[in-house]
Amino acid sequence: MSQQGKYERISSGFMLLFAFVFTIYSYKTGLGNVRHPGPGLIPFLTGVLLFAVSLLVFIRGAKRGQKATDTPSTSFKRVTLTVIVLGASLLLFSFLGFLLTTFLLMLSFFLITESRLRLKSIYIAATTAFVTYLVFSVALSIQFPKGFFGF
Length: 151
Known about the structure:
151 residues; 75% helix; mainly alpha; 0% strand
């Protein structure tokens, strides 16, 4: 078993526990029903999704072979860059607006993980920003900052 697989099992095990506790407390808050969702519905669904993804990562870590893909220093750099990008997106959110900030955030994540920019990455980042805008702003009528471009 590789070191990377060991780290994936440990981190995903922690996230499984966190997701389980998060889901239980969200359920206790109240899920409501389809017409009148309660305050715990979105956190509950998020906890279920986090649990499922963490379980997949845990299984992948258990099956990982001898070859490690990242050294610990490379992983640390990626985590550090991710935290910096998230912080920058928080600072720029009201200035650039939801659509542009989400697009740049997703594009940055692709650059961090893939180390080069591809047309597919730009397409996925734009699609993600647009779909989340449609879901939250149009369908759920949540108002986001428009930014200086007006969108």
